Amino acid sequence: MLRKLYNRTRLAGNIIIKGKTPNPIIRAEIPSITVDEIAEIKQFFSLEKFFILGHARSGTTLLARLVRVHPEVHCNWQAHFFTRAPYLQSLVNNPEVGEWLTRRSNRWNRGSDLTPVILRGVCDLILERDARQFGKKIVGDKSPNSLNDQEAVLLMYKTYPDARLIYVIRDGRDAALSHRFQSFVDKAQYLTLEDLKIREAFIQKPEPFLKGERSIFTAKGIERAAKGWVRNVNETHQAAQDLYGEKYHVMQFEKLTYNPWEEMTRVWHFLGANLSLANLADLLHAELQQNPDADWQNQKASQLAQSLQKGKSGNWREMFTPRDQQIFLDIASSTLKTWGYLDE
Predict the structure, then answer these.
(1) pLDDT for 191-201, tens place per residue?
(2) Are 18 and 108 contacting, i.e. CB atoms less than 8 angstroms apart?
(3) What is the pLDDT of residue 254?
(4) Which of the chain's ends, N or C, has fewer CB atoms near its CB within 10 Å?
(5) What does the pLDDT average to over 240-256?
(6) E strand or H helix at 15, and its extent?
(7) Alpha carbon separation from 37 to 28, 30, 47, 343 (Å, rounded)
(8) What is the pTM of this model?
């Protein structure tokens, strides 16, 4: 009782004197789950798991929609277990929680740290709870990792070294353009005054922007977009190759839209789904006729959303100004060339 009173008094003092709470104390490094722990937990949560990563506006939502038309596969999105703070591990970051999970008198921990089992169990329950209501046997989450790049792969591997990982890549110029429009439509409250002026000018007179005569980006904005895309692609792909090996599948958005059946059969095969099931092609075709993201943006801000054809490759060719093109190339030419996006 006295300890609780002391802690509350100290907290109140910090707020009064400093105007803020003290920085939280984070526990020591959380260990990775072991092979034996994985085998044991699969006795309770047996469904196969996968995760879809990608830079923002690279087609991760489209892939999630398409992959789950298979009768054996379920996918939902934006759990952000490993891709956006505070991350899954925040559930056990408190040093007192760590002490509880590792203390010798806690005979349930078998003399080791229970944390990896707790984190895996939380994830498995969330994923399988959703999948089992649809009778699926393979389940995954898609969450873009633009905010932490390779760190998402590192965090994932500590909890799911046995899962499968899919990474979606899209031409960074189209991704940047799509993300800019998404910000105009869905996140105007976070735009700077300069961004808001560009947004308003586009609404009033879009033609110069659509012809590449006037940029929808600030110079710093297009530079930031290029650097973020390069970092995400290079870091994520390298970490995924190093850690997941044959359990890693990389695909390009453009190929998915040009040859959806061919690309999706590869994905389903990678996940271990049965490709001999009837009507798969029909189910895929039906889903491709839908575009809920475009419908939502048209409903929310039609004067903006209708100016950019959703999912079209190469929109940047019409809308990037010479300045935009040069800045992006100066930063991203090597990565664009690696993935076949740079014209010879």
Answers:
(1) 999 999 999 99
(2) no
(3) 97
(4) C
(5) 98
(6) helix 2-18
(7) 20, 15, 16, 49
(8) 0.89
Please give the Cα distance from 159 to 95 (Å, whole number). Answer: 19
Q: What are phi and psi of 141, to 5 degrees?
A: -125, 145
* CATH pick for 33-338 out of 3.20.20.70, 3.50.50.60, 3.40.50.300, 3.40.50.10470: 3.40.50.300
- Token duo for residue 198: 């560009």
CA distance 38 to 25: 29
Cα angle: 320, vertex 325, 330; to 5 degrees: 155
Span 303-323, pLDDT tens digits: 666 666 666 789 999 999 999
pLDDT of 9 over the 80 cut:
no
d(CA 270, CA 333): 30
Axis crossing angle, helix 219-244 with helix 322-338, rounded to the nearest 10: 10
Rounded to 5, what percent of the chain is helix, strand, coil? 60, 10, 35
Q: Name the region of 30 (left: φ>0; alpha: ψ -120 to 50; beta: rest).
A: beta
For the chain, the structural domain boundaries read: 33-338
Q: Calculate the CA dihedral of residues 163, 149, 237, 45 and round it to 10 degrees.
A: 0
